[in-house]
Structures are given as C-alpha cells and as structure tokens.
Write a structure and sequence with these properties.
The structure is a homodimer.
Chain A lengths: L4 H11 L8 E2 L2 H7 L2 E6 L9 H10 L3 H6 L1 E4 L3 H13 L3 E6 L4 H9 L3 E5 L3 H15 L2 E2 L6 H17 L5 E5 L4 H13 L4 E7 L4 H8 L24 H7 L2 E5 L1 H15 L5 H12 L1 H4 L3 E6 L12
Parallel strand pairs in A: 2-10, 3-4, 3-6, 4-5, 7-8, 7-10, 8-9
Antiparallel strand pairs in A: 1-2
Helix pairs in contact in A: 1-8, 3-5, 3-8, 5-6, 8-9, 9-11, 12-13
Chain lengths: ~325, ~325
C-alpha cells in the first residue's frame, strides 16, 4: 500500500523536536564544476551523524506504550545500530543491538556509549537474525529493520520534506541507495511536497542490486560487498521495493574511483565531512553532467560517520 | 591609535555582500566534553576557506580608485595570498602574490587559479620582502600585509561582530594567534559589540611570541616554526600589538598533541573540516576546562584549508 500525504504529515509532527532540522548548504565551486545548482541537505550534521536517526525516532514513537516498555531490537554494524541506540535513549526505551563480533570496536563503543545493550554474534546474516529473534522472544522487544520497515521509511522521508520546504522547485532529488529506506522515503517526500521533482538513486556498480531490480521487476541480491560505500552493501526489501519501483525515475551507477573523487571534492570545497556512501549521488551528477546542467538538484548527504584516520584518499 | 566603533561600523558596511556571513554552529557532544556552551563561528566556510577574505576585501576596498588601478601585492605562502588573489579578482583589481619557490604547488595553483600573478622567490623573509618591494616599485601596486595592517584588522573584526550580533552575551571569545591580525580585530569587536566579553588567544607553546610579548611589553619573535598549526608561525606587528596589549585578557598556550586531539574532536563530532590552527582555541578550552565551565564561549574557527591527504592523525 502506497503511504499517503497524511502519513508523511504525521511523521513530520512525530519527529519534530526529536531530530535536527539540518542545514542546507550550497557551494559555488561545486556548482561551477557541474553546471548545476546543487542544494546539499546535511544529514551528516544529524544527531548521531546520519539520517538514520529520523527513521529510528519515528519507528519507536509509533510503538504502543506497552511495546515501548519492552524495548526495541535491531541488528546492524552501521549507522542504524547507533540511531536506534540514541533514539531509544532519548525516548527512554531499552535498546538491544545485535552486532557482528568482528565489527570495529569503535562502532561497538559508540552503540554502548548511547546506552544500548550490545549482543555480539557471528558475522553472518543468519546469526544476526537468529540472535535478534532470540532477544525478541526473551524480552518481548520490537524488531526494527534498518530499511525495510514502513515507519522507518516514513521517518526518513522527513529529510526530503525539509529540503523541499526550503527549495520547492527542485528538478531532481538525489540520494544514495543501499537497503532502500532512504530513497523510498525521499520519493514519497517528492511525490507529496515536490513539483514534478524527479528522484534518482546513486548506486555503486559493485552493489547495483537496485539498478537490476528496477530492470527485472523483482528484488535482486548483491554477489559482492566490495565497495568503499559501506552503507550501501545491502539490498532492497519487500516494503520499500514497491514504492521505489512505482516512483523512482532512475538509478545512476558509479565506479569506486568516482565515489572517492566525489567525496574528496565535497571535503575540500565544502569543508564538511561526509562518509563515502554520501558521495555517491554527487558522483552521479559528475558522471552525467549533461542531464543536470542548469537544473536545481537536491542531494541528501546521508551521513558523516567515517573513521578520519582511515580515509580512501 | 585605537580604532573607534565608527571604524568597525564602516568595515561591516564595506565587506557586506562581498564576504559570506558564515554559520555559527553548536555541538552538544563538545559542550558535554567541556562543560561550556560553545558557539563556533565557521570561517572555514568563508570564501576561499578562511577569515582572511574579510581583511583582504576590506583593505582593497579602502584603497583609492587610483590605487586600485595599480593593483595590490602581498607575500604569503598561506591563506592571505589566496584571500588577496580572490578578493582582488572579485573587485576587478590586479593582484601580485610573492610566494616562496618551495611552497606546495597546490597552494601556488590555488592562487593562480584565482587569477593572481605569482612571483616566486627564495624561501626567506628577506627575499620575500625584497621581491614585493620590487613589484611595488615597478607597478605602483599597494602592499598589503597579512596581519599588520589596520584595514586588514578592521576587516577581520567583522567575524567577531557577526558572532556577537547572534550571541551578544558571550563571556569569552577565543581565537588563534599568529600574526595578530585576527585577535586584534576580534578584541575590537568584543570591545564595541560585546557585554564584558573577554577575548583570549590560543597559541602553540612552540611559537608563543604573543604570550611572551604580553609579558615583556614588546614584540617578541619565535625561534622555531615547528608547529602543526602552520598558520600561527608568524609574530605580532607594531600595528596590532598595541591593540592586543591594551585589550586582550590572556593567551593560553597548548601543546602540539593537544592541537591534534582538538582538531580530531571537531572533525569527528562536528563533521566539519578545520585546519590545525583553527583547533588551537578549542584545545585551550579543553586544557583549562575549569575557567570555561558553564560559560558561553565563542570560538572563531579561522579556516579549513588543509590537505586532506596529509592529516596529522
């Protein structure tokens, strides 16, 4: 079922005051480089450093009081684990986060630092899911999927809404595509708050499941996770794929070196820190300059959680 | 002669529309880390990436039309060369920038990219000054000193004014101290636009000429330039020292490893790129937490021009 404008209106109210209304930045140097007018929605400045906070807050707020009392559980080695941990803490809810035992200790510490109960497991999807289910059974906690959950998607949509409220005349809105939770939310924002604003996904060639899914008409998997854009290694799900399939205009794929170059341009010219996944849409604009020339192009910079001592350049 | 409030009022009008009114950012994580309320004035987002644009624009605008027609000259291996180059370009004035032949080619290219005429010379102060004088004689260009020039100081003051207009009740305003042009301007801003706002300089122990000058009552030199804060290796001058001597509350010195740690905290928690010199005031707050606890503290993040492939962490 396609969410309605009412759903989005409610999600805006629900997250209000609980997430940052992040800045929209422009950069004359990057405009000159592309020939487009670029509007960057800085979710790298969001609480815990990524848009994921929006979906986590919205999903937890939509639980019943009884559900909240039993806590929430997710499995994630990335930003969503941190988002659930911080959102739960801020809402007074217990969070259980299942993490692979080989996850970087800095990430485990971040999740623990937000007060979540971390359970380690083997580094396979099966082990993660099994461990999550066990916690659900033992505690009654509600499971929150990072991207394939309608309340997460509706929370994510608020980033695009905020951008379109400031710049209602965007011709394009570009976001990175990983699990599909951000692009599904964004395309709903564009449908209800844009004026013929086309939503385009940026995706690494190495993990181009969304590109292939739009071609084949069914969810596709990735055979590799070999991309610098570590937030985009996952695949679409049955909750977000129908929305993406119906509303997304196009997926533009980019090479690894294009991602690194785009990231470096944004760091050097905008003086802001973004993670590699966030550079993918700008890489797509650079790759297809003609399409975007003289257009107003919104880009959601999805996050800024990167180990500054281990950069790809 | 101490500049008056009228001088500052005029400088605000002069630079208006020609420099960015940069953002003021806050960060709850860094507030929690220090116990202070911190307000960061983001001159790293200024045109060409540093506050130096303000002084360059103001100084060039204060030349007569005849002077403008003959151009401007400066010698700099750092941000002021870029600032003069871009300011001159934007104002339709010819800029001559003398740079040491061993300056990084990326810096030379940046200055040339802004349209300035670059003259290379030996890497000594004597050679730089001689080359500048020769250009002055040959072209009639006006010499602009990066920090020891009253019009540069008055232009720099506008950063502090903008911060105090947003937050008039700051208890402290901290800036890095190099040649003294920023702190002299800032302390004038605090005198005329603050309410008992104390201005404190942050300085590396390795190049603590300003700290020693305030003790001895005369301009001191540095015996070493061995600091990661490459913008702070110079010493005070006869135009800015009297202002600093009369109005600055204190200089806090910090160790090299404190500068690097402070820089890393700002990168990681604020997701913005600052150069090492800009981290010195925050390092000073971390070093003397008790002084700043529960106080409202403004910090001018002076610039963001750093080679992201050569980081000190």
């Amino acid at each position: 079922m396609m969410p309605s404008k009412n759903h989005i209106d409610r999600s805006i109210k629900t997250v209000s005051g609980l997430v940052h209304k992040t800045l929209v930045l422009t950069c004359s140097a990057l405009n000159a480089m592309t020939g487009a007018q670029l509007y960057f929605k800085c979710e790298n400045f969001q609480k815990m450093g990524a848009f994921k906070m929006r979906g986590a807050i919205h999903a937890i707020q939509n639980l019943s009081e009884q559900q909240k009392a039993s806590g929430v559980v997710t499995h994630s080695s990335g930003n969503f684990g941190q988002a659930v941990a911080l959102a739960a803490k801020n809402l007074g809810v217990t969070a259980y986060v299942v993490m692979p035992e080989n996850a970087p200790s800095v990430k485990k510490e971040a999740v623990k630092g937000y007060g979540a109960i971390v359970t380690e497991c083997e580094s396979t999807l099966e082990a993660r899911e099994k461990t999550s289910e066990k916690i659900q059974q033992e505690t009654g906690a509600s499971f929150l999927h990072p991207s394939n959950n309608l309340d997460v998607i509706l929370g994510n949509a608020t980033a695009g809404v905020e951008l379109l409220e400031k710049h209602p005349d965007l011709d394009y809105l570009l976001v990175p595509v990983g699990g599909g939770g951000l692009i599904a939310g964004t395309v709903l924002a564009a449908k209800y708050f844009g004026h013929n604003c086309k939503v385009i996904g940026g995706e690494p060639f190495a993990v181009d499941d969304a590109y292939r899914a739009l071609q084949s008409g069914k969810i596709e998997l990735n055979e590799s996770t070999n991309t610098v854009a570590d937030g985009l290694r996952t695949h679409l799900g049955d909750k977000n794929f129908p929305i993406i399939q119906e509303l997304v205009s196009e997926i533009i794929r980019v090479e690894e070196e294009e991602i690194v170059a785009a990231m470096k341009h944004i760091w050097q010219r905008m003086k802001i820190i973004i993670e590699p996944s966030s550079a993918v849409p700008f890489a797509a604009v650079l790759r297809e300059k003609e399409k975007f020339r003289d257009k107003k192009v919104g880009i959601i910079l999805s996050g800024g959680n990167v180990d500054v001592t281990k950069l790809p350049f």
